[in-house]
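USER: My hope is that you can spare some time for a protein that puzzles me. I am handing you a single protein, as its sequence and its fold in token form. Walk me, if you will, through where the backbone shape changes along the chain. The protein I mean follows directly.
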Amino acid sequence: MAYAALVILIQNLEEILRDNPLSVHLRKQHIETLHEDASSLLSFLRDSEEKGYDHELLKELEMLTRDGVHKAADFIDSYVFINRSAECGSRWRVGWKQISLLAHQSFTQIIEEIKSIKLKVLKIYESKVPGREVLAAKNPPVQDLSLSSPDLEEKLVGIDTDIEMLVLRLAEPSLHLQVIPIVGMGGIGKTTLAKRIYDDPYIVYHFYVRAWVTITQGLTVSVIYQVRTILLSILGCLTTITDEIREKTNEELGEQLYQNLKGMRYLVVLDDMWDTKAWNNLKMFFPDDVNGSRIMLTSRLYDVADCVCPNCSPHCMHFLRASESWDLLKSKLPATESFPPELVETGKHIAKRCQGLPLAVVVVAGILNKMGMNLEVWKKIAESVDALVSEDPERHLDILALSYNCLPGFLKACFLYMGSFPRDYDIPASRLLWLWVAEGFINPVAGKSFEDVAEKYLEDLVSRNLILVGKRRSNGTIKSCYIHDLLRDLCEKESKKENFLNVIKRFASIYPMQPVYQRRVSLHASILHYSYSVNPMPLTRSFLCFDMNKILPDFFLSEFMDQMDFKLLRVLDIMLLRSNHFPIEIVDLVNLRYLALAVNCELPGSICKLKNLQTLIIDHIWEGQYLPWEIWKMRELRHVHLRRGCYFPLPCSRNTEDNSLLVLKNLQTLSTIIGTLSCSKEIFARVMHLRKLEIFGTESDSEAEWHSECLSNLVCLKELETLKCSFLYRPRKHRLPQWKTFPENLKKLTLSGSYFPWVDMATLGMLPNLEVLKLRHFAFEGFSWNPVEDGFPQLKVLLMENSDPVNWDAESSHFPNLRRLVLRECQRLREIPEGIGYISTLEIIELHDCEISLVNSARAIHEEQQALGNEEIEIKITWGDNHPTADFFPERKLFS
């Protein structure tokens, strides 16, 4: 993982140059030399990706680069550890000689090794190593590239509806040339679906000419070569490829293709397209004779579909339902007159464990075919489906590895990191992004925060179908995500190859690598057993533990931390381990960037030794803990997440330093803080760049003037985008302050238990950038809500949960940009205003556990809009324990 290692090393070197913790042992010129050489190597890797080099020597150099950079990073981090430990008075006293022991060589040797690698790279450039340019000069053999009539390779269930929809799109009345993309993750059946359609009798009859091309994977060939491959492949479907044709240039081949397709109603399938560079050079050769010609392509990348056909919706492949997975599994087993009934239940469980991916079902079917129709054997397979599938990599991992190989270097580390989470784990997106930032995976981009760049990385991996979205927030951003088990297997395989991550699931797998060299460890086994069978790991940078909700013996964590000797740790996530004592050894981890833990005690003031900590996540056993005032000394903090709420201290120097220096200018997230005193103007003025804030009001706050003691102080937070205010007790004075009190940047607001009068909604309506408004548990109270004109100009999502008036009088002009209306547990509201249905941007109305009168009004709105030709509004109705009892869309009737 040379790319990620270089990014991390460069960031660390820049930190040293900025903070200047130098000595006679580590001179500025040496650091600058190493920084220059590392930056050159990073530029080389980026350039080689862009040019698509595929040469064994380059792969070897990347491994050399990775190992050399790791040695340099070990040395630099060890040096920084010594300096920071000395500053903080750490109990660890590591001498200069021990740095060489940790890093295994001297700094001079490291600099020379990096310089040597750089010279080898430059030599490759100068000698023009064969890469994409050489490949482009060769003429590919057409017989290896063309599939004029592909055979049906796999039987796939659950795609009859997909076939029907796509056949209709291919043969629809529109006569202009259209491009129809099919998108989905590797192994989901895109190619099989396309082949079924390609050989459909109606399609064969409808199109005069058909051609099928499987695209060569993008990273191993040049665009010139790829375009030539495709042109020859399509021509091979239309005519005989002669030596004369092979000698033609790409432009001449394109002109011949254009002439051969001219006047024909044609269907061209471009299977497995990885990027749009080849398409941009090909599209001019497809004539549009307004005769209903079509181009169908398959891709794993949503970005490719959007670029190739920006004005049409791609056909997205879905995972198989459990019943469909079972049908596919049975179809791959030996045909019998009647399936053994004793195998049905176990077989269904096996099929379900494949998580709806057809490729996984086919692999498991192959295993079952070898084992025979034996119940006891099937039960054993059902207990270890994941492990058995992983033992047959040629059947699936090589297919999925194409997606990984096509990733740019800056995304590979982020993807492999997904392997650190257990199977079936729903990963909070914010936590994942904070981890990526703390690890150092994110390239800095001018004008953007690391978190914003990380969010783009996540969306990029989602668009490549490598990460799956669990839930999205009301504003459309990703709230949680997960990864398919087969892709997770790929993460583990590549991580071991790259010495990137060691996942420990069983005690037998503790020593797959020498412990001292493990750079990242994710523990999925019992930490109580693990602690007795592992050596110290002084070079480990990350330790994550998923020993679910384990209550630890007294002082166990302290003993464990002492045993592990985590000198250079950057990430420590032990949130799922609960302890009554804070392990004081943590404050000696002076390189720590990310800390997540659950403790039944207050944090010690010595935590301020963690001066480089960026993310602090604390889960207390009970609410109402106090943060130490020394937290104001932790100036690198970016995210403080207190899961059960804490009192935030007033900035107080206690005569140790100038009070004006106690400012957390990097802090972006602060949740959840308790009480009016935690929301003082003095505190908010010192966290001026806060973007997300969550406040919890207590019984004592009900006696205070909430707006004057808390909300009015929000004026200090000019960059605040997300605000959540919850009140446990009904406040006695409950009026909203003037709208100018709220930050102008505010985009998402959640209020709960505040009991404001509905007339104060006019104040919120004045917020110019508010996009999401959630009203929960009597956020407002009163008989009627009468919105005012020109309010809520940007509001897209409105949720009312147990916070509803009896009458709501609204017109479409009151919410001009509303897209989603959610009503939950609204027992008093009689009907949805008719004017809501006339909002041109409205996409969905959701009703959960609401009165039947509201359901009837939703039906009336739907019927009226359908009569007016508006079939875009979707209505969703659920009752009970989130059990859907009435889902209907424009083309279906409401039922109950």
In short: The chain has 30 helices and 31 strands. The two ends are 55 Å apart (CA to CA). The first helix runs from residue 2 to 19.
